[in-house]
Amino acid sequence: MSTAETAADVQYSVASLSKEDLLRDYRLGWESRHASLAGRKEVFMGKAKFGIFGDGKEVPQLAMARAFRAGDWRAGYYRDQTFMLAIGELTLQQYFAQLYAHPDVEAEPSTAGRAMNGHFGTRHLDEDGNFKNLAQSKNSSADISPTGGQMPRLVGLAYASKLYRQNPELHQYSQFSVNGNEVAFGTIGNASTSEGMFFEAINAAGVLQIPMLISVWDDHYGISVPAEYQTTKQNISEILKGFQREGEGQDGFEIFRVRGWDYAALIDTYQRAAEVCRAQHVPVLIHVQEVTQPQGHSTSGSHERYKSKDRLSWEEEHDCLRKMREWLLLEGHATEQELTQIENEAKETVKVARTAAWNEFFNPIKQEAAEVVALLNRLVKETGTENQLHELVEPLEHNPAPIRADLVRTVRRALRAVRGTRSAARRDLQNWLEQALAENADRYNSYLFSQSEEAIGNIEEVKATFAADAPQVDGREVLQACFDANFQRDPRIFAIGEDVGRIGDVNQAFAGLQEKFGELRVTDTGIRECTIVGQGIGAAMRGLRPITEIQYLDYLLYAIQILSDDVACLQYRTKGGQKAPLIVRTRGHRLEGIWHSGSPIQMILGAIRGMHLCVPRNMTQAAGFYNTLLRSDEPAIVIECLNGYRLKERIPQNIGEFTLPLGQPETLKKGDDLTIVTYGSMCRIVLDAARQLADAGISVEVIDVQTLLPFDVDHVIADSLQRTNRVLFADEDVPGGATAYMLQQVLDEQQAYRFLDSQPRCLSAQAHRPPYGSDGDYFSKPNAEDVFDAVYEIMQEADPKRFPAIY
C-alpha cells in the first residue's frame, strides 16, 4: 500500500508552488470556511430551509483541485464546496444563491434552486441543449443526495475515458475527450462506504481498469453513528488492501492514505495519484483520514449531542485550516500578520457575497409583493370588500420576507372572495396570476425532458418497409439486424451487460456482434446491475450512446434507485444543464417462475419520471423504438417480451432506419362493443380472447399502447371509447398497478369518463408473483379465458337477455 503519512520526501510537490499559490489556497480555504459558518447562521435566521456544509474538508479539497485538469470529471457528494471554488466552477455568491434556492439559472447554475445546498454541477449543454466542448472545461456531474449514489455514475465517467482512448473510431469526438486522458474524481464520506453500491463500484473499477480516483473523507462519523458501527476494522483502506495491485502493469488499485490536515502530504498524494490514474488508467483510492467536521452533520442538529469532549477537543486541535496555518508559519511561507489579514479579508468577502446573493434573490420577490399589494388595494376600492380582504392583504403587506407561494396563495384566495364581481382590478389580478403561474412553472416544473432538437418529439417518423418476399424469421433476428445496422451507423453506440458479448445475450439478439465490432463495443459485464446502469449513465454524460442490458426485468430492482435518483431527474435537477441519453434494455412479462416473469410496471412508472418507458409487443416494434431512441437525447427503458424471441416476424428492409414514435398507440383490431387497452405480451392473449369473443357475438377493439411513458399523446383511446362506450384495461402487473395508471390517464387526463355506459374494469395479475410451471402462470396472470369472462360480464350487465350468465 502506498502511503503519504507526513510531509517528508514530498518537497518537490510543495516546492513547485509559489508563495502566492500557497496563500491563495489558504485564502480559499478560509473563504469556504466562513461561507459554511455564515450559511448555518442564515438557516437559523430563517433565510434558508436547510444547510449542509463542507467545513473541515477544505485542505484536502484544495489539494484535489490542484490535480484536477480541464477535461476531468467529478462525481461527488454534498460537502465539496471548497473543491468547486478552487477549480473556478463556483463563486461564493452562487454558493449562497443555492442556499436561498434562487430559481434563476444565471444566479445558481448548478441546479437553478432545485436541489438543496451543497449539490454542485457544471453546465454541459448550451442554450439549445447541445453538448459544449467538454474536453476543454472542468466538469462536475450533478450531485444527488443519496449517499453512495454518485459511485455508479463515477464508474461510467471513468469508463468513457477508456473507450475514448482504446477505440480509434472515437478519436474524432475531440469535444468529449483528448485520447482518454481524463480522470474521473469521486468523493464520498467514510460512513457511505458502507453502501453496497460503493463496494460494487470499487470492484467494477478494478475489473475494468479505468481512470477513477475516489477520495474518502474520513471524519469518523455518519451523522451520529461512529466508525465502529460503519466499517470493519474502522478503516476502509485497510479492508480494501486486497485490491492493491502488485506492481505496474498488474490489475488492481493504487491505494493511498493521507491525513486530512497535512497540506504538503495532500498535495503530493493527489499529484502522484492523479498521474498514475491519468497515464496508466489505474483506479486509485485515497483514504483521507483524520478529517474534522466543525459544525457537525447539518443544521438539523448539533454534534455536541453525540461526540465526546475529548473528540471535540481533538477536532479543534486538528482542524485542517489551523494545521495549515501552523505549517505556513513553520516553513516560513507567511507571517502571523499576513495570515490574520487573509482570514479577516476572507470573512468580509463572504459577507459581501452573501449580501449580494440575498439581494439578487429577494429583491425581485419584494417587488412582486409590492405589485400584488397594490393590485389588492385597488381591488378593495373597486369592489368595496375591505373587511373581507383585509385579513388577506395585511399579512402580505407586513411580511418582511415573503416567498412567491405567499403571493400566489393570497391572490387566489382574494379572487375567490370576489368571485362573481366585475372590476378592472379583478381582471388585472387575474392576469397577474396567469403570468405568475406560467413563470413559476418554468422556475419549478420545466425540463423534465429534453427541449433540444434531439428531443423525442422531434425525431421524424420513418415507416417500416417490407419486401414482398421477406422471409419469416425469429424475432431475435430482427433485433440483431437492428443493432447491427445501428452499430455501423454510429461508432458512439456500445452495449454492455451480463452475457451480452461472447454468447450474444441469453436470447441471441447480439449474436455475432462482438466478433464483428469488437469487445469495446459489445461487452460482457459481471453480475452487477447497479453499476451496469451507472456505467451507462456516466458514459452517456460524456457524449457516448450506451445500451445497458438488465438481463431480466425482475433484476431492475437492483438498479431502480440509481435510475430514479440520477438519470431520470438529471435534466430536471439541472434545469437543462446536463443530459444522459441512456437506453436500458431488458425483458420481462411471461416466462416461468417467481423471479423470471416480472411485470413490476407500477414500481417503474412511479420511479422513473423523466425517462421513457417502451413496452413493445414484438421485436419489430422494439427495433423501431431503438432506432428512435438512438437518434434522441432522452433516456429510456425498453422492455422486450420474454416469450417473443422465437416467434416469427418479417425483417423490414430499412431495419436500421425506420422509427416508431413514442406515445402513439396502435389499434390492433377494430371493434364496436368494447375497447380493451393493453400492451406487451398481453397483446397476443387479448387478441386470442377477441377471437373467442367474436364467436360469442361481441366485437371488441384492441389497442396496444406501445409506450406507457409517454402515454397516448393524441388521445386515441378516448376516441375509441367515444364509439364503444365501454373499456377494459388489462396487463400483467399487480392489482392497482399499471392498469390503474392507464385508467387514470384515459378517464381523468383524457376525460373519457364522459363516453362510458358501463363501469370501467381492470384485469391484472394476482398480487403475488407467478409460481414455477405453466399452471403457475395460468392461474397467476391473466389468460384468454380471464379476458373473455371480464368482457362478457360487462356486456352481460348491459344486455342480460342477449348475454345470459355463463356460470
Automatic annotation (TrEMBL):
Domain Transketolase-like pyrimidine-binding: 473-647
Pfam families tied to this protein: E1_dh, Transket_pyr, Transketolase_C
The keyword Transcription is assigned to this record: no
Keywords tagged on the record: Oxidoreductase, Thiamine pyrophosphate
GO molecular function terms listed in the Swiss-Prot or TrEMBL record: oxidoreductase activity, acting on the aldehyde or oxo group of donors, disulfide as acceptor
Cofactor section: thiamine diphosphate
Matches recorded under SMART domains: Transket_pyr (SM00861)
Job of this protein: E1 component of the 2-oxoglutarate dehydrogenase (OGDH) complex which catalyzes the decarboxylation of 2-oxoglutarate, the first step in the conversion of 2-oxoglutarate to succinyl-CoA and CO(2).
Official protein name in the record: Transketolase
